[in-house]
Amino acid sequence: MNPTYDFSGKVAFVTGASSGMGLSTARAFAQSGAAVALADINEATVAAATEELLALGSPVLGVRCDVADEDSVAAAVTATVKQFGRLDMAFNDAGIQVPPSDAADEPAEVFDRVNAINLRGVWASMKHELAQMRTQGSGAIVNCSSLGGLVGLPGRAAYHASKHGVLGLTSSAALEYAPRGIRINAVCPGTIATPMVTDMIDKGELDLAEAVANQPINRLGEPEEIAAAVLWLCSPGASFVVGVALPVDGGYTAR
After folding, report:
1. Is 76 contained in some domain?
2. Which of 46, 154, 158, 215 is the most exposed place for a label (fewest CB within 10 A)?
3. What is residue 102's three-state secondary structure?
4. Residue of 5, 159, 177, 252 with catalytic role
5. CA–CA separation, 111 vs 57, rounded Å?
6. Each residue of 47-84: pLDDT tens digit?
7. What average pLDDT is seen over the chain?
């Protein structure tokens, strides 16, 4: 059973919020009493997710946001503050995976695309979240890295570069903003049963049996398990936790 939190009166902003870990986290924030802004590039799915949470009676705002476009991120954060008056918590989850590639053969445009979303997108999101939180003197941000931010794997150079970069952003900004009352941390998910992972399995880009065998817990993670970690990092229970890269990976990186 997950702990329960009372985030009444708080405002959360989640990127990549229309499916997978982002949606599970947005849902968990809403169930804990927070007002939630759901930001995603896919207008149709973010609209559906917004309707789902509105049906639960939660204060919700759905916004289209392309994290690779800083102006789009700025507009989404501005809309959130305009709607709810403040910003207390953020989960920067939006990210993509790309097919495995020999490092000598990977096209530059693939490297640029994965880093534009996975790394630059986190940078832009954190930048504009911090601009608001700085005026408040409080806040908590969780950036989504990956087990790929902690280790390397053959065929995944561009993706792992982006996720290692997220941890550099996190630790540096965490040191800068901890004295100002803002905590910044990262989660490093293992292989989680999300639509993106399902798509990779369907395309033959990921072997399910191998993925399960690589996690000592002998199963894929669930999006709700990432949400639980994010909520804890945003909660008063983690008030002395700053700049960590928290593996939530079924033991993958413990070996």
Report:
1. yes
2. 154
3. coil
4. 159
5. 41
6. 999 999 999 898 999 999 999 999 999 999 999 999 99
7. 95
